[in-house]
């Protein structure tokens, strides 16, 4: 059966560095193993701004951005068994096919099944489901949540069986899950261990939340914006350091001093490669681990003296916190509903779709943790 094309509003990024424009776009019906979702709410993540800026080596235009969305399944293509029309869902930019080498490894949440086409901005069959003014628009991160309707692969969506407020749970589609998972799954922070979190945006504050859950000892939050001190404390940070106010002392030296030899776990939630270096060098000799979460611009590279690794510090990284979306995300929604996971606290701004550019401006103003866009 072939469904109908839907015409709806979407925020289109026509070219790098320009504001999005609200357009009427045509969204084709889902093909086999595809799902069409009516998006109700989407968050705006720093990564959307990063790709829009032109600094993402995979970024191409015109494109429908957005990857932090919740909605309701409108229709499904042939052979879709995991979700059905009417299901409340969260879109997954890290899909989970449960069959590929990656999914079966038990070592990673990265799924290999559709990564190549996802990176090119097309559906797994190599084509787009979006059209505007006669032109194809690219998909983004397999999700494209800045559209009232989007089409995703069936492995890129998870149903949330217990109804939960989508205007909040959308944030579990990226920022909150990423930071929380990085602490609880990727690092698996141990009780009493000392943690440093660089960058107290949605991702960094979620790392704090995960470190608190795992009963970390010190949770030192490092941010160049003093306004983040209060935010860090609200989420359970025990100390706050503004690295711009240390005079001649390097931030890594300050952290080593504060933790009797270095941190057990550090997290980069800034995307700045100098910060990544400091985070690695702030680790304890012999065992300290530094987890890279931030996304760096094309051409940027990390460096440190190899001696840092020879002497037992480890560099790691993760996408989506190491969380397997279809298997583990419903559990995080349940934790939220049971009052065990903070979500509402991250929402500082709300905008209607027509004002989505304001959500990007809010983000750059430095007093926004997350802006949720009502589609
Ligand atoms: P954000 O902009 O809300 O937060 C970044 C914070 O870092 C801000 O508070 C800022 O003041 C602080 N900061 C900037 N420069 C700093 C410096 N030199 N030292 C200390 N602090 C500094 O961003 P976010 O949405 O929380 O995302 C954080 C990063 O994580 C981004 O790079 C984003 O692209 C990336 N990200 C990665 C994943 C993943 O799966 N790996 C998922 C989501 C986001
Ligand atoms: N396309 C960029 C990298 C962007 C990137 O690392 N994205 C993260 C998610 S950020 C969410 O806010 C990710 O999922 N990475 C793993 C993957 O497979 O893309 C580049 O440098 O090419
Ligand atoms: Zn994101």
TrEMBL record:
It comes from Knufia obscura. Residues 203-328 form the Alcohol dehydrogenase-like C-terminal domain. InterPro entries: ADH-like_C (IPR013149), ADH-like_N (IPR013154), ADH_3 (IPR014183), ADH_Zn_CS (IPR002328), GroES-like_sf (IPR011032), NAD(P)-bd_dom_sf (IPR036291). Its cofactor is Zn(2+). This is S-(hydroxymethyl)glutathione dehydrogenase. Gene3D superfamilies: Medium-chain alcohol dehydrogenases, catalytic domain, NAD(P)-binding Rossmann-like Domain. Coiled coil: none annotated. It holds the Pfam family ADH_N. Keywords: Metal-binding, NAD, Oxidoreductase, Zinc. Its EC number is 1.1.1.284. Belongs to the zinc-containing alcohol dehydrogenase family. Class-III subfamily. The keyword Zinc applies. Residues 32-160 form the Alcohol dehydrogenase-like N-terminal domain. It catalyses: S-(hydroxymethyl)glutathione + NAD(+) = S-formylglutathione + NADH + H(+); a secondary alcohol + NAD(+) = a ketone + NADH + H(+); S-nitrosoglutathione + NADH + H(+) = S-(hydroxysulfenamide)glutathione + NAD(+); S-(hydroxymethyl)glutathione + NADP(+) = S-formylglutathione + NADPH + H(+).
């Amino acid at each position: 059966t072939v469904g109908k094309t839907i015409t709806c509003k979407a925020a289109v990024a026509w070219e790098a560095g320009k504001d999005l424009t609200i357009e009427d776009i045509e969204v084709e019906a889902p093909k086999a193993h595809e799902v069409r979702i009516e998006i109700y709410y989407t968050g705006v993540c720093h990564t959307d701004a990063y790709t829009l800026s032109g600094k993402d080596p995979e970024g191409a235009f015109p494109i429908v951005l957005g990857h932090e969305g919740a909605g309701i399944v409108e229709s499904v293509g042939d052979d879709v068994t995991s979700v059905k029309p009417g299901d409340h869902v969260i879109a997954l930019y890290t899909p989970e096919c449960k069959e590929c080498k990656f999914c079966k490894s038990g070592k990673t949440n990265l799924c290999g099944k559709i990564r190549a086409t996802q990176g090119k901005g097309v559906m797994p069959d190599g084509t787009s489901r979006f059209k505007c003014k006669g032109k194809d628009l690219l998909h983004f991160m397999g999700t494209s949540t800045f559209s009232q309707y989007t089409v995703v692969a069936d492995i890129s969506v998870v149903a949330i069986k217990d109804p939960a407020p989508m205007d909040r749970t959308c944030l579990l589609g990226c920022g909150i899950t990423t930071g929380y998972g990085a602490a609880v799954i990727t690092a698996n922070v141990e009780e009493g261990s000392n943690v440093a979190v660089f960058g107290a945006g949605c991702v960094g504050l979620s790392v704090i939340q995960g470190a608190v859950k795992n009963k970390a000892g010190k949770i030192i939050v490092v941010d160049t914006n003093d306004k983040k001190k209060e935010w860090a404390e609200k989420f359970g940070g025990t100390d706050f350091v503004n690295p711009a106010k240390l005079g001649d002392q390097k931030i890594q030296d300050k952290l080593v001093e504060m933790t009797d030899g270095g941190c057990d776990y550090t997290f980069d939630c800034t995307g700045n490669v100098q910060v990544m270096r400091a985070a690695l060098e702030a680790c304890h000799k012999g065992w300290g681990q530094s987890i890279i979460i931030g996304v760096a611009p094309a051409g940027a590279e990390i460096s440190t003296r190899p001696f840092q690794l020879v002497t037992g510090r480890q560099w790691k990284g993760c996408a989506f916190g190491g969380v397997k979306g279809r298997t583990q995300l419903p559990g995080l929604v349940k934790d939220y509903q049971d009052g065990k996971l903070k979500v509402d606290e991250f929402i500082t701004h709300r905008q209607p779709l027509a004002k989505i550019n304001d959500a990007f401006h809010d983000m750059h103003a430095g007093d926004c943790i997350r802006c949720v866009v009502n589609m």
